[in-house]
Specification:
This protein has 9 helices and no strands. By secondary structure, it is mostly helical.
């Protein structure tokens, strides 16, 4: 009967895991090969044939080593780009869309505000347009500024 522990330890020599995890993996794989070997022996195969079939279960030891390392490493699957750029931007988008929906549902009716205040709704749009014309690069100034205007006006109307 082959020494499965030694055989597995030798075949998985470059396994880059912590010592206790490495010993656990080697023990589990050796136990599996031993169970398979005993099952094949019970079916009447010789020791050499049973050992060859057990070793034949693992076609590529390097590929097995790579898969074990991938499964066992506790490496974070999110890169810094995902954590620092995509998650905050998606969260901001989600929150702003939700707030915009709440403002549209529960917020002020602009035509009613314009009638009651005696003002006109054209004035804020004109001011924003003139600021954009006065800026040297209006195409860089207005896009980030304009989506904030409805939110600012909602809070201004609610809290003042």
């Amino acid at each position: 009967m082959p020494d499965w522990q030694t055989l597995v330890r030798r075949r998985l020599d470059g396994l880059a895991l912590e010592p206790h995890e490495r010993a656990q993996v080697i023990e589990e794989l050796a136990a599996h090969l031993d169970d398979t070997f005993e099952g094949l022996r019970r079916r009447g195969l010789t020791v050499e044939d049973a050992a060859q079939r057990c070793l034949g279960e693992v076609k590529d030891w390097r590929d097995l080593r790579r898969k074990i390392q991938t499964a066992r490493t506790k490496e974070n699957i999110m890169t810094n780009r995902v954590k620092q750029f995509w998650l905050p931007s998606l969260l901001t988008l989600l929150l702003s869309m939700g707030l915009l929906a709440l403002i549209q549902i529960f917020g002020p009716n602009p035509w009613m505000v314009a009638r009651h205040s005696g003002g006109s709704l054209v004035a804020p749009v004109t001011v924003v347009y003139q600021i954009g014309q006065a800026a040297h690069n209006a195409r860089y100034f207005l896009p980030p500024f304009f989506p904030c205007c409805p939110i600012w006006s909602f809070f201004w109307l609610c809290f003042l």
